[in-house]
TrEMBL record:
Enzyme Commission number, as recorded: 2.5.1.-
Protein name: tRNA U34 carboxymethyltransferase
Pfam families tied to this protein: Methyltransf_23
GO terms, molecular function: transferase activity
Domain of life of the native organism: Bacteria
Length: 273
């Protein structure tokens, strides 16, 4: 049963950091890092009636709840609750891990949202690398958002999504891209590499994003479509200053603050299914 308004307010108020902007009740909106409410209608089918759906790397569960809202018969949300178990480069320090632990709070955001919505979505601790159809079954619609960037082995993750997609099903991915490289090299697969201090690895251009899907046995139904992820109320606002404009990361953050985080999404079919 969904929670009473006062209890929702109280639980949201007690948790200052959210990844997702979620309207848990009229007028009770979580201060998310991103506000994906205008993005979901672009990326998800308007109906998922009767479908079995999977959300990989769910965080506060925005995509899982959106799939449920579209009539999914069943939604499974998986995540790694302990940020220490993410793919970190050796150069990462403890400070950032701690910061992410604070934001994650053991997956508490999903629980609060699930209770507020009276959701039936199931939550399970599982790495994308460990998805196994023998354990979780197969899904008509598999969603994974903003995770390829954080994985040391993104192609293996995509292969795993493929392995749990039911015959005739769709794998929907939405992830970070390098917009400049996409403009400069529209046909040539290129990527920039981070791998330093934070769990950020490859940022492909759109051509490489398309090729990554194909190399994992996924055939995009249409070319990956660019989209910007608007920042939410909990996202710091970066203002232009000499220091910000002088370095690449500063310029990236400034553009993300004002125009949203550059990503691309695609619906893919499983090749050979
Ligand atoms: C940047 S957030 C994206 C949240 C959400 N998927 C979205 O698109 O808005 C990345 C999420 O992936 C999770 N994660 C990190 N490594 C993972 C892994 N190997 N398997 C599954 N989830 C993982 C994190 O815990 C976090 O919830």
């Amino acid at each position: 049963m969904a929670l009473a308004l006062e209890e929702i307010r109280e639980r949201v108020g007690a948790r200052p950091q959210w990844y997702h902007t979620l309207e848990l009740a009229p007028g009770v909106v979580t201060p998310g890092w991103f506000d994906l409410r205008t993005v979901a209608p672009q990326v998800l089918p308007s109906s998922l009636a009767g479908k079995r759906c999977l959300d990989v790397g769910t965080f506060d569960g925005f995509w899982a709840f959106e799939m449920e809202r579209r009539g999914a018969a069943e939604v499974l949300a998986v995540d790694i609750v302990d940020p220490r178990a993410w793919d970190w480069p050796i150069t990462a320090g403890d400070e950032l891990v701690k910061l992410l632990e604070d934001r994650k709070q053991g997956g508490a955001g999903f629980d609060i949202a699930s209770d507020a919505f009276g959701s039936s979505a199931q939550y399970r601790e599982c790495s994308v690398y460990d998805l196994d159809a023998a354990e979780v079954g197969t899904f008509d619609f598999v969603f994974m958002g903003s995770l390829l960037l954080h994985l040391r082995d993104p192609i293996r993750a995509l292969e795993k999504l493929r392995s749990v997609c039911a015959p005739g099903g769709i794998v929907c991915t939405m992830d970070a891209i390098d917009p400049t490289m996409s403009l400069l090299f529209p046909r040539r697969a290129m990527a920039t590499f981070d791998g330093d201090g934070r769990p950020w690895w490859w940022m492909p251009n759109i051509a490489a994003y398309d090729k990554m899907l194909r190399s994992a046995g996924l055939a995009p139904v249409t070319k990956p479509t660019p989209v910007r992820l608007p920042r939410g109320g909990g996202h710091p606002i970066v203002k232009p200053s000499k220091a910000v404009l002088m370095n690449r990361e500063g310029r990236r953050l400034l553009a993300a603050t004002h125009r949203g985080d550059p990503q691309a999404w695609a619906h893919s079919k499983v090749v050979g299914a």
